[in-house]
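User: Hey, my collaborator sent me this sequence without any context and asked if I could get a structure. I don't really work with proteins. Can you help?
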Amino acid sequence: MKRIIAVLLFTLVLGTLVACTKKEELIEDVTELEPLLVKLTVTNEVEVGETVHMSSLVTMGNQKIDDADEVVYEVWEEGKKSDSVMIDSTNEKEGVYTAETSFDHDGLFHIQVHVTAKGLHTMPVEQVTVGSGGKYEESSGHDYHTEGFSMHFMKPTDVAAGEEKELIVHVELDELPLEQLNVRYEIWYEDNSDEHDWVDAKEEKAGEYTALYTFEEAEQYTIIIHVEDEEDLHEHEEHIVDVKL
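Assistant: No problem. I've predicted the 3D structure and written it out in structure-token form, which is a compact way to encode the shape of the chain:
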């Protein structure tokens, strides 16, 4: 009887030690998780019609990431962020993702790459001067008032009336996730412009804010994303979503 009890105690202690070891290994793995880094390189000065080369080296520690979930380039002209164009990248392997574009008039343009990999997201941005750089009204200002601030709205597509969609925005400052913010979606359509819906977003991951919204009518909806902290940060960005029957 004593031998049986001793064996049971030994098994219990051994099981506890194994569980603790696995827990310690898990904690160690989480602690050693490397940040997702993206080195964005673009042609910073071109003439009208010339090719702008875009290249992103995606790494995590010493590892070059060849299997990113998303690498897409967003391009817009100064003061016209709401009219931005998305360009898919080509995976060149060795962690390099490329794309090309060109511009048909002088101006100042922004190129931002959106990279999602290993459950992380980052979105560095560069500028391109085309020709003389163009002229812009003082009132147009910059797309963001806070230096280093950036947001990426994953605008829903193929939306049908009555369909609930997930609204996701990533927010960064100096290419690092901005956490614990107050993020709200202001939503309306033209024929109902007197009634604006306000939807609070939840931070599901560091710097990622998510909400659910049902687009009831087949209309063109306006969405303004409001981002605030408890101090002096207050940024917003406007998007258009077309809802079909």
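In plain terms: Residues 9 and 24 are 23 Å apart (CA to CA). You can pass these tokens on to your collaborator as they are.
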